[in-house]
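Chapter summary example: a protein plus adenosine-5'-diphosphate.
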Amino acid sequence: MNIIIFGPPGAGKGTQAKKIINHFQVPHLSTGSIFRENIKNETPLGKKVKAFMDEGRLVPDDTVVDLVTDELNKEKYNNGVVLDGFPRTVAQAEALDSYFDKKGSQVDAFVTLSVPEEELVNRILSRGEGRSDDTPEKIKTRLKVYHDETAPVHSYYEKKGVIKVIDGLGSIEEIFERILKALS
Ligand code: ADP
C-alpha cells in the first residue's frame, strides 16, 4: 500500500505518518528527515540542500526525485511506503507516477491534513524542535512556498480520485482515528 501524507508545514504529517507506519507496518519515507540527517552528518547531499532548507525554500526537483527513486528501489519498500514531504511539486508528482507506472504500482491513498493557517504557525513555534527553518520569517516563506508550489499537487491527485481530506484539528489520537476510517 502506497500512501502519501500531505498538508502544509505544521499540519502534523510526521506525527501521523509514524502512527500509520506502525499500524500498517509499511516503511516511512520523509524527505525532510533524510535531508536533516544528511545536513547533520555533513554529507555531499547535506551540503547541497542546506541553503535551500535554511531559507525555507524547496530543494530542486531533480535532487529530490533522484533521492526518492533511489530510496524506493530498496527492498524494504516492496510492500509499500508512507511518503511524507514528497511529492511537493507537480513535477515531483509526475515523476513519482512514472516511477510507480514502471513498477506496476500506484498511489493508493492521498491523505491531506487540513489545518487553519494561524494554528500552523502556533504549532511550529511551540513544538520547539530547534529547526533552523522554524523562525517566524522562515515559516512565512514555507507557507508561501506551500501555497504557490505544493498546493497544486492536491489538485493533481484530485483528478485521480485518491484524495482523503482529514480534519487536522483535535488530539493526535482523534486525527489518527479519522485517517484509519478514511483508509478503510
Ligand atoms: P515541513 O513540512 O514542516 O516544512 P519537512 O521536513 O517536510 O517539513 O521539510 C523541510 C524542508 O525540507 C522544506 O522546507 C524543503 O526545504 C525541504 N524538502 C523536504 N521535502 C522536499 C521536497 N519533496 N521537495 C523539495 N524540498 C523538500
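Key point: The pocket of adenosine-5'-diphosphate is lined by residues 9-10, 13, 31-32, 35, 52-53, 56-59, 64, 85-86, 88, 92, 133, 142 (CB under 6 Å).
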